[in-house]
Amino acid sequence: MGKAMCILLIQDRKVRDFGLVAALENEGFGVATALLDSKELVRTRFSGVDVVIFDVHHYRPCEPSILRQWHERGLDAHVVILCGSDSLADKIRALDQGADDYLIRPIHMPELLARLRAVDRRRHPHQIPNLCIHDLEIDRIRRKVRRSGRPINLTPNEFSLLELLAQHSGRVVTPSMIARHLYEERAAVNSNVVAVYINYLRAKIDKQFKQPLILTKRGEGYLLRA
Question: What is the pLDDT of residue 202?
Answer without folding.
Answer: 94
